[in-house]
Amino acid sequence: MPTCVELFAGGGGASLGLQRAGFRSVRQVEWDPDACATLRAAGFEDVVEGDVRTVSFDGIGSIDLLWASPPCQAFSTSGKRFGALDDRNGWPWTLEAIDRLRQSGSGPTWVLCENVPGILHHVDGCSREVDPTTCAGCYWERAVITGFQERYACVSWRVLDAADYGAPQCRHRVILAAGPSPFPWPKESHSALNLIYDKWVGTGYWVKHGMQRPSRGPTLADSRHMGIRLAVSSGRPDVGKLPYVTVRDTLGLKYPIRHQSPTAHTIQHLPDDVAPTILGKGTLYAERHIQKGSFNPHYHTEQPSGGVLDIFGDSEECEDTSGVVDAVIEAKGRRRLTSAECSALQGFPVGYPWQGLSTSQYKQVGNAVAPPVAEALGRAVLGALRG
Question: Shortest CA distance to 52 belongs to which of 67, 31, 32, 73?
């Protein structure tokens, strides 16, 4: 069985996806104690609670794949963006770990790295001639990419959306692939247009949920897509792809939809679409009367007449997680999604054993790799290994 090592393993999103793809994980390196406890509770036996910079790789044998998710806070557009100068910049540590693996005779044959798209952004007025540590985009091009090109024959990268691979969430991440040959990037398995088709051209989506198609018709965003692509289509536009997985699909919700315009400072996501990006702050909210539960595809709660799930996120009012904001949200008739609900919207299985206090669990979930993405990438690496 092909083997892999995960650096900055977190709560195990990449580890779980690679396991599903057919890899045997021989080492997960993570320095957060709660995340390590989660990995162990999930059944991973080779967890090293320690620093990527000092961990030993002696005796682990030949490694087919190294996965690394260097901390993204240094490059996130929602943070202070100290970039390469941030103490949490893990890209040099990743390259050093590759060198140590090679010195021990372990490989790795392939490397996959994951990070936020903010690492691609150049500062305003960047001439591409500045010190690369002062500009994220320059650092990516002139330090990260160059560092991998010095070690591997073929290096490429893409921005992938987790929703395209079956996660019920819009989550864009940069994936870097390095290896001995061009990387066979996995094709998208799911389609936004096919979801729109099933909702508004056909009736398959509503029939599946035992609901009547809403009389008010498609949302504005869906209408725009339909006018451009679906009006001239006699069938599903993306042949061979499944529809996007929605919040309703994931959380087993069964009740009518409500159309409501979002406020000026709040982005509203209806339950019949993918969720917004799950954040480590746990700042997604639902209507307060929606009962908390152990959600699965066969779970339905009886809701008041006209009940809905409106997911709110990315709001200015959601910046503070001290409890003050929750009180304001609750007064408006909403509640915070549970960490288990957020986990399901990340693509984790029901009952995944997150460890630690609630704040830690939200952080682990929000920082995790969506398992369906790791699985798709892992299968691509397996194809490359088999030639």
Answer: 31
| Residue given tokens 């007449």 in the structure block | 305
pLDDT at 38 over 90: yes
State which of 226-230, 236-240, 268-272 shows the largest mean pLDDT. 236-240
Query: For 53-106, how does the pLDDT look when each residue is reduced to its tens digit (9 = 90+)?
Result: 999 888 899 999 999 999 866 655 454 454 555 566 889 999 999 999 999 888
Name 300's Cβ contacts closer than 8 Å, sequence gap at least 6.
252, 253, 254
Query: Ramachandran region of residue 135, left (φ > 0), alpha (ψ -120 to 50) or beta?
Result: beta
> Domain limits of the chain?
3-189+366-386, 191-240
Strand 154-161 versus strand 110-115 pairing type: unpaired
- Do residues 347 and 168 lie in contact, with contact meaning Cβ atoms separated by under 8 Å? yes
Mean pLDDT, residues 153-165: 98
Nearest-5° Cα angle at 231, 229 to 237: 50
| The CATH number of domain 3-189+366-386 is 3.40.50.150 | yes
Longest dimension (CA), the chain: 65
Local confidence band at 205 (pLDDT 50, 70, 90 cut-offs): very high
Q: Summarize the chain as % helix, strand, coil (round to 5).
A: 35, 15, 50
- What pLDDT score does 317 carry? 34
Reading the block at residue 271, the tokens are 């339950």
> To the nearest whole number, what is the mean pLDDT of the chain?
82
Sign of the dihedral defined by the CA atoms of residues 84, 89, 95, 100, in that order:
positive
**Beta carbons within 10 angstroms of residue 270's beta carbon:** 19
DSSP letter for 323, please: S
Task: Using DSSP bridges, classify how beta strands 154-161 and 172-179 pair: parallel, antiparallel or unpaired.
Answer: antiparallel
- Strands (E) in the chain, as ranges, are 3-7, 24-30, 47-49, 65-68, 110-115, 154-161, 172-179, 190-191, 242-243, 267-269, 285-287, 311-313, 334-336
In 18-34, which positions are buried (b, 16+ CB within 10 angstroms) versus exposed (e)? Answer: bbbbebebbbbbbebeb
pTM, to two decimals: 0.88
pLDDT band at 259 (very low <50, low <70, confident <90, very high): very low
